[in-house]
Model the fold of this input.
Amino acid sequence: MNEKLHPFHIMILIYMNQTGVVIMSLPHLLAENFGYNGWLGVILISLVVNLNIFIISIVYRLGKGKSIFQIMESSLPRVITFPIYMILIGVWSMTGCMVIKNYVYIYQIMSYNTTHAMLLKLLIDIIAYLLIIKGIYTISKAATSFFWITSWMLLLQLFFIKDFEWARLTPFLFKGDTHFLTGGFIVFTAFLGYELCFMLFPYADNPKKFIKSVYKGNLITTLTYLIFCLICFGFYSFEQIRNMMYPLLDLLSYIRLPFIERIENLLFGFFLFTTIVSVVLYSWSAQETFARIVPKANKKVLAFIILTFGYIVAWFPDTLSEVGQWLQYLGYAELGVAFGLPLLLILILVIHKGAKPS
Amino acid sequence: MTNTEKNIPKEDGPAKKKVAPSLALTLKEFKDCADLIYRSLPDLALEMVFFDHLTGSEEFTREIAIPFGSAEEQDVPQLLERSQFTEITDSDALIKKILNGSVALFFHEKCYAIHVYKPESRTIQESESEVVITGPHDSFVETATLNLSLIRRRVKSSRLKVIKCEVGEITKTDVYILYIDGLANMEYVQEFIKRVELIELDAIHDANMLVQCIDDDPNSIFPQFPTTERTDAAVSKLVAGRIVAIVDGSPSVISAPASFFEFFSSPDDYYQRWALGTATRLLRFAAFIVTITFTALYVSVTTFHYEMVPEDLLLTLTESRSRVPFPPIYEALLLEVTIELLREAGARLPTKIGQTIGIVGGIVIGQAAVQAGLTSNILIIAVASSAIASFVIPSYMMSASIRLARFGLIILAGLLGNFGLMLGLALMVIHLSGLTSLKSSYLTPIAPIHLKDWRDTFIRAPFWMLKERPSQSKTSNKVKNKMRQ
Done:
């Protein structure tokens, strides 16, 4: 029997999958697209995310906890499911690989400028592979351990309390050069990761608490983003944030301890853990989808194929901005999956009046 | 096949035809065994075969010498009807009984055995590997029966059950599996017995050898079952709903299932005030972080990230490193290996000479290495701190595993700096996440999360707060404490 996921672990999985290195540039994105006090934009986006989770919860309720694959395969012919699966595999595997490349490129701003980015990416890929092949239960255990290893970093914000000035927040709300729609889409991609909860349907230990734990996961992400962004908006002036690519990274470099300073390098290292969880969850989802196409194949081989495919694709973008572009487009595609797939599933379930008994 | 192997009858395999025991057959089986004792009492038509070093002289006198010494031949059948005498009808079974310390008695065509096993044993002493400041000082010895008595003395309950197994194709070592009925999860007990029975090694010499044969992941560097020489520790495991296994010939006992964090607790924690116990536990976890990362961080900083060193300290560090001609990774590995050599040499040598090793290592090599410009003195501080921190971990097995893992982290930090260090830590966490102990998660109570267990894992809360047995034991009787503040 498969081991089930406790609601707490689902919450952590969602949070760890959502957060990542994007947090480094989030204050900049918010300032650029939402204007003065753009940090409040996090709440607006979080509400949209909650709406999306609500749509997913309808699928979960109507489908009575059945996996999305079972729902689709029970109603749609293989001719239709096959291309859907291929799109999902493509989006998820490429998102995973680009997340790593983005992390590596940002790291190379600080160190290892002469090391080949693809070598560093390969090392992370190997680590990710070792986790993917262990299955979702071990992935959740590792994610929980990584959560405890990284959660203390929130306390670092205490260093900036004395330099924080409420006056820098200004009395203006969402004023200045704003791009709500396009900017909203960009900022929304920072919240992506929660949508993979529909891959966890069959593994939920407690059906009643499953959706609640997804909401809670998103809530922790929202609070984390809010705190980090608020500190940035109160520490830097608005113009500074607009001009800085990674305000949070620069913020961390101000921390000085008696024996150590400029620890942003080390702290950014801790983001490797959240990056690994994101990559692993996306790649695991791609592997599970792939397994529906070739059910008899060994899952370890499938995971290897997916990561190899991602590795080859990751050779194409050469610069950080190119990777950013790729991630943006993949984010849009993922946005389509996050809203489109649950709506399709609801349609199927409504037509069939609920899930067919398995 | 060795000569010994031929002589020892095998019980396993397809059912063999029973052969009636006889004196001739028995003596033939033990041919060339100079230590076998054969005694004949012609007046009683009684013959005896036994190993006198396995039998207790007092027991022999009481059960055999006195009753049979004053008896006539016609009294013998009546004496042999006593409950302590067992009639044996299978030759193989008789051989096994003799090897296990029984005396075989041949009377006319019949054969009997009486268990008078009492081997020579080391006296109960304090454990050298698990020293305590407060608390009981007695520890297990190499005799399983004596170890059983030490446990029985502490657990006066008929619910303490003991299952006997045999491992080792040649050594036929007795393994006693103990659990408290109603507290232990029977699925764990069955799984443990199954694993012990599946061992097909020719010999098991110690409990630490046996655990490696029943590990969930034998390839892991981390121990999955703790072993202890402390009687109070073993009893506390039993009471917590875990299983304890005693291996004959070993002063260590095994407990199962276990989590990674269990290796960081010591029985001392419960004998001190809760605040002290908590502080000590937290210190051990801090020591774990220091031992795993300190040297690696030094290598990483001095190789790739000099910007992380504050200006005041930078001068001292640069001055200290200026005379060293090697990259930090070589320097660190050189010193780490030296420390390991000293530790190993100190462990193998008698205590008095061991002290000399400490002086030679600590003063001569340490001081000389710095003066010769082979290492920097800051690295010596880092390596020594890591080494001391590793010895704070109560379990020797876990401490050794962590020290080994540290080498991997140093190499990764030397090659890839902080990135390598984080990569190594991630690898370690992933490995630990995948480990299980008797199929239960190794990282419990962190993953899966059991917040109540944290009170007796990361801290040692006051006893009134420790109300439940650990969730890992999956016991049906959870409440262990009904006290209120």
